[in-house]
Structures are given as C-alpha cells and as structure tokens.
C-alpha cells in the first residue's frame, strides 16, 4: 500500500515543480499563450526531451490542450493555462469525466491498452 501512496506523493510533487518551473524559468514565453510560447515552455521544462506537436482548444477560457511527443514518438496530452503554466496530470470536469480523454480524441490520439504482466 505504501508503494501506491509514494507514487501519488511523487507525482504530486513533480506536478508542483513543473508548475513552479513554468512560472519562473520562462517569463518571456509566458507572456505569449500561443503554440510558440508553449513550445518554448515545454522545451525548457523537459530539457528538450519533449516537443510540442500541436495545441488543441478546450473550450475553457485560458486552458489549452497540448500534444507533446518524446524522441521515441510517444505522444501524450497535457494542458497549458493562460500561457504561464503547464499541467501534466489529469483534469476532471464537474461531470466527473476526464478532459484528457476528450482532448486526446479531439487531437486524433488513440488510447493504447496496457500490457498484461
């Protein structure tokens, strides 16, 4: 049980670090909530391990879906807020549904089932 709990704590801490890093390290890009601005933030925070493939409108004021890709070609969805913050984790709407899944579908990404051990 403590293993699952430590993963939650680690992910929460990592998310906080990314949010803090976005505000402090890329002030110039933060003023520009466009694809170019988010591309600079993603490149800076991931030390060029991820690149921004495209941005996807969410329909929520200030929130932008970000499709990123690693060097192996794996794509993932995260979010940008007001051109200042990166939100790597899930976003859950008041209806209880994950916004991540809706944005992934809108971006044309298909879910990959987990392998059985």
UniProtKB/TrEMBL annotation:
Q: Which range is the signal sequence, renumbered to this chain? A: 1-29
Q: GO cellular component terms?
A: periplasmic space
Q: Which UniProt keywords apply?
A: Signal
Tell me which InterPro entries the record gives.
DiS-bond_isomerase_DsbC/G_N_sf
- On the tree of life, the source organism's domain of life is Bacteria
Specify the protein name. Answer: Uncharacterized protein
Source organism per UniProt: Acidithiobacillus marinus
């Amino acid at each position: 049980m403590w293993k699952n709990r430590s993963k939650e704590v680690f992910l929460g801490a990592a998310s906080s670090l990314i949010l803090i890093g976005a505000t402090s390290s890329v002030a110039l890009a933060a003023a520009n909530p466009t694809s170019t601005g988010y591309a600079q933030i993603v490149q800076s925070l991931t030390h060029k391990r991820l690149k921004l493939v495209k941005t996807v409108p969410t329909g929520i004021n200030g929130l932008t879906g970000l499709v990123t890709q690693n060097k192996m070609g794996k794509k993932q969805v995260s979010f940008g807020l007001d051109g200042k913050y990166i939100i790597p984790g899930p976003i859950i709407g008041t209806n209880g549904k994950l916004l991540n899944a809706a944005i992934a579908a809108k971006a044309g990404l298909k879910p990959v089932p987990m392998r059985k051990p």
